[in-house]
Protein 1
Amino acid sequence: MMVPQALLQPRPARILVVEDEVLVRALIAEELRLAGFDVIEADRADDALTYIGAGEQVDLVFSDIQTPGSLDGLQLAETLRDKYPDIPVILTSGNAPTRRVGIVEAFVPKPYDVTQTIALMSAILAQKSPGEPL
Amino acid sequence: MSEPCILIVEEDLLVRTPLAEYLRECGYLVLEASSAGDARTLLEDGSRRVDIVLAEVKSGEPSGFALASWVRAHLPNTQVVLAGTIATATEKAGDICQEGPALSKPYDHRLVLDYIQRLLAARDRNDRT
């Protein structure tokens, strides 16, 4: 059977970035794309959940804790843990978290080093799917 | 010379993301904003020269019209394309792609519209359950 070439090629890992500060989001998104990742940019945790709920594949979520809307980043992580336990979550914040963040793969304090943060994402994705291209 | 840059201004993630992915495949560097206010923040930051702003007419407060006026006054070399509906936005993205740096369109813009409509239908179904 003939298979479209595009389906044979490995898909880059898709990272959903949730950050309402547009300049911060644009910077990390651009660096992630330069590193070869597919990036989805959301400014609200609610939108991130809607995107995943619509059936779109996401390999990792990187979310600020303080996000506008009805969900914050921690609540997003809790919901993902219940409904989509295969999606690793990294949280970030400029403030120390007031609630437990133990349910997520990592917490990165702001301001974060972009290169180190991308290396962390790569390591978590590699652990999740050893042997698969990122 | 770096690739031309487009700023997409669209509130709905399920609309903005497929449009942005399509234009990236057309060879553009694409910035994303969910509101006209965020778009203006990106434009004022000035770290990236934006060639085209593709904005929905509404885009919250300030409106897409107000953003267009601001761009025309402050960034005369930046083209503004306003779209009132998702269909118009995808059609205009198709036109922009036609003139883009890639040698050919990755796919027809009508497929982008179909994809967006499928995502919106999935959201509607989830909202009902």
Note: The radius of gyration of chain A is 15 Å.
Protein 2
Amino acid sequence: MTNTKKLKEFINFPGLGDLALSGARPLFGVLLGLLAGAGLIALSGVNPLDAYKALLQGALGSPQSFSNVLVRASPLLLGGVGAAIGIKTGVWNIGTEGYMYAGAIAAGAVGLIPLPVPPIIHILLAFLAAMLFSGIWGLLAAYLRAYRGVNEVVTTIMMNYVAIYFVSWMVQEPQPMAEPGSFFPMSKMIAPTAKLPILMSGTSLHPGFIIGIAACILFFLVLRFTPFGFRTRMLGANPEAARYAGVNVKRQILFALLIGAVMGGVAGAFEIMGLKMRVYMDFVAGVGYEAVAVALLAGGNPLGVIASALFFSALKAGGATMSIQTGVGAPMTVVIEALCVIFVIAVGYGERKRLERLEKKGKEDEEVVQNGG
Amino acid sequence: MEADQIISWLQATLRWGGPLILVSIGEVFSERSGVINVGIEGIMLFGALTGVAISYFTGSVVWAVLVTILLGILLGSGFAYLTVSRRTNQVVTGLMVNLAALGGTNLLFALLPATRSERVTTFPVLFPESFHSIPVIGPVLFKQPVNTWIALILPFIAAWVLYRTTWGLNVRAVGDNPQAAATAGLRVVRLKYQAVILSGIFAALGGCALTLGEVGYFASGGMTAGRGFVVLAAVVVGGWDPVKIALACLVFGAADAAQLRMQTVGSDIPYQIFQMLPYLITVAALAGLVGRTKPPKTWGAPYDPADI
């Protein structure tokens, strides 16, 4: 009984409790994932330590390589924090891939119009278009989930594919956005006024990661200190209690899914205006799903999203160097990512359940003691 | 459209719809037991690669099928362990299986350079050449490889198993009300395992049918191209009934065949409309716009034996 009580106090301790539930536990899972990855690398006849060393070097070895990590982190941060809000609310927003396409095509469309305005206005207009269009794109699944009770997982996945093919249609001739005579379906280049500034010469470091980290901090504060955040956490922790306490559950779910959609759209817009400069067919190629994995690894905690997004992007950025130096194929990093997430959700769940059981048992013990005394 | 164009379109419909039907056979049991196996896309990929690899090394499609089934059992058990025993979120687990499969097959495929240049032994055509010249049904049906025929017969067997056998009834009971099923003495966890493993086997076989049914090679970078998700869509649109799902698979196969043709021939209608169609129909079906589809009552929910 005293043990359970101590455990509970530890969990309720401000700051530390969150660490125990959303900080340390995922770290353990990631460690297991990296170990399993090491096993696979060893199976392919390469010393895992060499491979991981090359990977680290490829990610952090020089300012250029680290800038590459930050570029890759941008969509994971922005898309990931949007998905994280869903997780905190208790809905599974798997639509990030689609929102990124929706945001990208809208930003690309506004971006390629030569507007006689200063860059800041053009860029803001493009972002606005991206947020609006991805928000509208997400509205269907969000409305269906919130007001009609339709499983959001399946609808958001289905809408991803609709988005992929919609963008492929828009960037192909004879659509007005398409680059005429290109060998691969792609849009025209965006106007110079719509291009984001490069932060470090000789790299493609755009401000996406700064906005991404800022968004993570902002959503952390929103969740922690605003009534909206309180309602979100309440709904995620116990839907019945939230309903009983008078939370407008439907509206809350709608907003949570829409936030994911809008943030995904921003992620897509950054990819276009900061990195690709035009919209290509199939250009997201799974990054949206990785953003969901990032949110999951963070257990829906926006600050955790920063850590897990950087972890994922470092893996991806280092993968190329690992491949060149040790011959372990770059797809290995994707496998390691998946293993990490699987370990985190498989290990984490059991731990959390055990904790709940312990607490429940502790309460029963207390009752027995009280009744007995 | 010319008559021979229609015939070749119908032929392609069965060719692309067949593997979808195979995958759906397992998925319907898994979903009826309450487990959405989103990992079928990844398992298909592994099945597609395994089929090609084993056929290349042994020259025998029988061995290819047997090893593919083994692989399906393995991956299905893994998925069942995570989602049923560890009660992880089914969709997230499935997405991670897909991610791992995309990376994993690319890695393994890099070790098999020979299968890039050489065609491997593919599934045989059952009917003799003389049948192929029968008008319309000759080329559409009799020219099809054996896996298409199996795909056309299996939905009826699956429906019989699901509705007429005790095991099928048990699976449905487990998906609709696991607590009641457990109270009635059913071994819920074991039944879920069986249903999920079945989905692994058929997903792997569907992938194998994709590569060994016609083309005879594997292509890296996700050659299943979202077909696993098309099956998930078909299961919803088909209202969790094996025969209706098979029809949905054929309709989606027809759309697939049409868009492939439009890509090569060129057309005024954008082919992407046909690519979107399965997914749009599914959202409409879930929204209740197209008929009434009712998912199994614990669709996608984890089962905790302690919840009784």
Note: Residues 331-372 of chain A form the longest helix (42 residues).
